Amino acid sequence: MTLTPTRHDKTIATVCLSGTLDDKLVAAAHAGFDGIELFEPDLVSSTSSPAEVRKRCEELGLDIVLYQPFRDLDSTDPAQFERNLVRLDRKFDVMAELGVDLILVCSNASADAVADMDDLATQLRAAGELAERRGMRIAYEALAWGRRIDLWQQSWDAVRRADHAAVGLCLDSFHILSRSSTITELGEVPGDKIFFLQLADAPHKDMDVLQWSRHYRLFPGEGAFDLVEFTAAVLGAGYRGPLSLEVFNDVFRQSAPVRTAIDAVRSLGALEAGLDDALPRQRFEAAFVEMSVTPTNLASAEHALSALGFTQSATHRSKRVTAWTQSDATILVTVTTDAPEDDSSAIAAIAFDAEDPTGFAASAEGLNVSALPRVVRPGEADLPAVAAPDGVSIFFVSTAGDDLDWRRDFEPVPPTDVATSAGITGIDHVSVTAPYDRYDECVLFYRSVLGMRTDEVAEYPGPYGLVRSHLLRAPHPSGFGVALDGPLLRRGKWTPGVQTPQHIAFLTDDILGTLSALPADAPVLRIPDNYYVDLQARLDLTDEFVNRIRRLNVLYDRNADGEYLHAYTTVIGSQVYFEIVERRGDYRGRPLADAPVRMAAHVAARRGMART
Amino acid sequence: MTLTPTRHDKTIATVCLSGTLDDKLVAAAHAGFDGIELFEPDLVSSTSSPAEVRKRCEELGLDIVLYQPFRDLDSTDPAQFERNLVRLDRKFDVMAELGVDLILVCSNASADAVADMDDLATQLRAAGELAERRGMRIAYEALAWGRRIDLWQQSWDAVRRADHAAVGLCLDSFHILSRSSTITELGEVPGDKIFFLQLADAPHKDMDVLQWSRHYRLFPGEGAFDLVEFTAAVLGAGYRGPLSLEVFNDVFRQSAPVRTAIDAVRSLGALEAGLDDALPRQRFEAAFVEMSVTPTNLASAEHALSALGFTQSATHRSKRVTAWTQSDATILVTVTTDAPEDDSSAIAAIAFDAEDPTGFAASAEGLNVSALPRVVRPGEADLPAVAAPDGVSIFFVSTAGDDLDWRRDFEPVPPTDVATSAGITGIDHVSVTAPYDRYDECVLFYRSVLGMRTDEVAEYPGPYGLVRSHLLRAPHPSGFGVALDGPLLRRGKWTPGVQTPQHIAFLTDDILGTLSALPADAPVLRIPDNYYVDLQARLDLTDEFVNRIRRLNVLYDRNADGEYLHAYTTVIGSQVYFEIVERRGDYRGRPLADAPVRMAAHVAARRGMART
Known about the structure:
alpha/beta, eight-stranded parallel β-barrel, eight-stranded mixed beta sheet
């Protein structure tokens, strides 16, 4: 990528946001967008006239850059085409009042669509002549489900043949990438014929492309498409208009619009950074994970850590925080009295030991992530921190002995000579429940602010409903993971499980040794016998091995790349538990088929029904 | 249909219900199921041993009729097939402990699936021999996404060739109807070779069949398949086992299981009634719709009705209820002081004037719909009533002057000589918001208890999210409609709109006359000018016509069958409003593209921003 850093105008289609038109305009302006695409139904249902909308946008500092969509322009029936031109002319009236000169015309999806490319070009040219007379321009777009024109190359062919100054292309990343179209031919398109660029990401879905487009689009960086490569190609072809988002998403349609708009502008900021090759590339390791507990949960948290072989290694100089360490794993336990519920425990923070902690924080701020205010006492380290959308605080720290070395605030506890290690070597990942409305925002946050990469996207059934899971990992060599889990559908009143489970997964090189070394009162989660009976039926395992892991309550999975052995503790307080993991070979992701077993076991443990 | 009424055993797969295995068993027993299909993952994650599950089922009066599923039995690799037989044998161990002798083996969906029909039959026969030695039987099922076997006819070919007493068919309505397979050849299958029948309905979806099956299945009578025809064909072929539900549904997976189980058993009751041709076939008309208002809303409700041309025709002899009438439309207005919120208004009841009101109520009770308890004073009519799952009470009444004539409880108000009619002739439909977890249950209720038919299923965008809509209508000549509207996704905290809108749509033969006749202070909802500008651009309408409907705030739609003109009132209290409808020609359904305009106009009216 050799583009010089350019600041592009950022715009958003009103359909991306929830609310009335005014709600949407306020949200877009608040988030810092330069302008909007006006989605026609938002205007039609608005009580404000086009002139009033224009004035409102001016007040808010928003350009109206596109009016959209205009459907079914071409027709095999000449009389119908004439009526369509009249309809277009009426829309030009509205656009003149709005002060916008560009309209999106999408390829005809009806039975009436024109198939002959010369006829289509002739009709486009006639529309271009009308537009020119009105001082307007037409951006023609191939819908992925267009009847005759469903590839961008066809839309370009039509525009090229129409050969009219007022007729150009609209390129939409979804319509192109959902069809796996090549974009190499973009080099043949003169930059000034690309009138508009709409950007949307999407998850992989094996479904009808129209439904996929209308319900599941995401902001760039939240899905599975490579928007950086795509946008670079369009810019490389000479496009100089705004980077504009057009995202139809069922969740965004009903989420608070200001929050969605901030997420949206962050996605374009991250895309720009990607274009400039300026996304964070720092190596970082987890310095610590901070767990908050209420005074009533402190003893069980300390008992669990201690039983798992952790040693209290330091205490905070001024706060009620203790550090527990085992090899490369450090857990801070903070006693809090302002928990939302009395019995609450939570993963409060993750601290990353980075080469340039302040640089990390600065680039986060550049992505519209607010720095967290902190109360720092004289002499204490003022650690840069930001809030992840999942509610976890992210600290950027050093272990270089400088001002950002978090250890400065702690007083070491003299080591005892009792060897307590259970063989835990570090932290594999942290799993948090992403809030339903912010799931995709969380994915973008970890990808853009921390430069993490998706390792696995999956869905699995729990006793109380389906769960979606997205595992992100830090760049090598750290590989530190954050797993976002959350209900596939927003939960209702029937929610007997742990609402927002969180856990810390510790690594060991020898889980059987680790589990064997634990004291008898370690709060290991009891796994039902049925699991082992099924495991042995499914996999070719020796009786000896199965009996051994059964005694230790270790779960097991195997795939072509390797093996994954793991065990859990019971839940500490209301939502946090620990996992101990041994990976053998190159097993990636997590053994999600074990998740329902773990969940049901946690339910049984909570109900006191576990047969111990 | 000439089957004699037979009472079939009713069973349900545990995967249909939310919760741990014990939650599911309790719910199935409570709803009155005779037995269960045990879904293997529910057993694997259970802390109860198979023997304990068997005992628990015995306590609850539940038979375990099927163990399922067993996947990937056949293999192109003989050594792998041998291992698969060992795996099967281990499952037989578990089944012996459970006390179940039938296992579902589904067609192989992996790359290893056997294509040659003779080879497959040989392997099935080998499995049958193993089963016979263990006293077990195998029900072989074609998955709609099986690699080699994906049609029931192929599975029957394999079973026929396997030619083993312990190997029979499992027929699953979803796998068959989703593929639009014919079932006429079922007559060739000996009844005793159909070992099991799984029933599931589903909505029409244009998507990957695996995803459709795993997320969107419904109970019979809730979707778009004809389960009565299908089941009759299977019974006609001689199948004598239970009617068993296997429904994978994202919402049911996370809804209270007792409620879901009752819905499920109702679906089988309605299916049996359909098989016996015993579903309600009565003609009925809407006698009245009852609206409850708080004392503070009474005046605005009365004002609205009065302004729309209704006359107070009667008052209740003992309660604070007044009847308002115009031609065939009667609205009861009940003042309530126990509304959930102070400002609440609601559609409390719909009364149907039926030939045999008590027969209606009795068949409802046969479908596990509880009768509503009523406080009846001496001399008052004791009207049979049931609760619809959407919270509306359904009364079955007469107008024959007998004990069930609801008018007995009312004292007529002497008519005044002022002619007030605005030309409203009756009630077209009532629209209610179906609770998210009970949407499909509502559909089944109106179809099975009242014999209503689906007129239109659709989705439309509102300012605060997507809405799904299902319009049901009574048999001719009444055609009375109930529209179930509800959010496509469960709403979160951003919910500035009316949460659970409800409305009553009145019919007129001349909406322009009706609207023109209304007094100046009638609470007609102001429709924005933008709507009319767009309407005129879209449709070939004269300026005169558009100006006229614009002045009257009438919305307009046209399709190939006819026209639909309609207007709305503002919201009375917190959630109820009225619609006035004129249908021209054979326009079916509702003009849902107008819905977002109506919603935004209601928001504007509520915010006092309407430009009047």
